[in-house]
Amino acid sequence: MDDFAGRVAVITGAASGIGRGLARHAAREGMRVVLADVEAAALDDALSDVAGLGADAIGVRTDVSHEGDVQALADAAYERFGAVHLLCNNAGVFQAGVVWQRTQADWDWVMGVNLWGILHGIRAFVPRLLEQGGEAHIVNTASMAGMMSVAYSGPYVVSKFAAAALTECLAHDLRAHGASIGVSCLVPGYVDTRIGDSTRNRPDEPPSEVTAPDHHFVAQILKDQTAAQGRHPDEVAAIVFDAVRAGQFWIPTSDGYEPLLRSRADALLQRALPATTDFT
Ligand SMILES: NC(=O)c1ccc[n+]([C@@H]2O[C@H](COP(=O)([O-])OP(=O)(O)OC[C@H]3O[C@@H](n4cnc5c(N)ncnc54)[C@H](O)[C@@H]3O)[C@@H](O)[C@H]2O)c1
Using CA atoms, how far apart are residues 248 and 183, in angstroms rounded to an integer? Predict the structure, then answer.
């Protein structure tokens, strides 16, 4: 898809970071924009921002881990604009920790947002996109953490590997169907966002310092790294729109990970545990 003006974008996690960058970029491309997020006040702020760029836009408070919320988001988008052309299943949260120490609630939260959130988006929108006909494109946000594993971040890494696999399967299924819906998987490295402060949106009790020092230790490293080395979300949004125009499947945000990806492929062929990066 290379023509965005006048078309409709739906973006989850649009109140902050990458999602907000995508919404702003969509507005600058002349798209009509549906912003979805669980954090109501931040969503209002992002909506004013995007409307201030001249876009016809609405905000829909949505918890992507709830199937009913995502179906209601699709209803709202179609009711207001009658069609959707670009769907960005982008909302995500970070949960670190040693795999055997994280509680069932920790795993449920991160898998609920990062995996089920994308699946709910696919199930709510794809049938409507197929029925509407014509060109459309879906961008799911996974992570470089969905392409290689690290210590102390099991729940996040598992959710992102699953998100990447889900996106590959979606692309295969749509191609097998002969559908004119493109698919891309955004796999960012560090981006300067609030991802290290994800527990602000956790509905139940976040892990406390006492019970989850492993989570807080890694979350602090992530905050430091994203602030020091992260790309600006607006740059990431520009990369995403260029990639959608080019029909690219994987959307990395830097070339710096090539050696690790190659060494991962080599390790798989050699039946060895792949090398890792941070936190070891
Ligand atoms: N920042 C990075 O370095 C980085 C790297 C790789 C991947 N990612 C991924 O990028 C995506 C966007 O994250 P970000 O970095 O912009 O972080 P962010 O925290 O700045 O933005 C995430 C947004 O998702 C929203 N959100 C959280 N839970 C939600 C839910 N249940 N329903 C709906 N919205 C919800 C938050 O309110 C927030 O507005 C995530 O999927 C994240 O995993 C980020």
Answer: 8
